[in-house]
Each structure stands twice: as structure tokens, then as C-alpha cells.
Amino acid sequence: MANVIHAGVTASVTEFKRNPMGTMAAGNGAAVAVLNRNQPAFYCVPADEYEAMLNLIEDAELNAIADARSDSPEIAVSLDEL
Length: 82
Known about the structure:
alpha+beta
């Protein structure tokens, strides 16, 4: 079965177990696909990239909330009322 690998660098599970930090360094700051029998088992994602992914997910969730509320009626409020 063919699989799409979403990383520019791959490593075997054995190679990853032998030298995890070296394997991550080979990714040059990008995700590394770890393969088990030539099938992607998991991806190792550097902390900076993981944080950026979480920020994108949060932005998408906030956009969905804003879109859902865009049809809500507007309420006029003056600064003095706040």
C-alpha cells in the first residue's frame, strides 16, 4: 500500500531510537517522518513548528466562531454605557 509522506526527511524506527536528536537535526527544523517497515509510523515535529501548527488551528477555530456570529444582530453601545 502506498502512503504519502508529509516530510522531506525520513528515518527508520531503529535509526530514530539510536539517535533521536541527530535524526531531528537532520530535519533542519522541519518535521521528520519515522518509518516502520517503510510505512510512516509517526512524525517528529520540532517545538517551534508544533507551536505554529497549534496557532494555525486556534486561528481557524476563532475564524469559525466569528463566521458563525457574523449574522447576529448588532447592538449599539456607547462608551459611557460600558
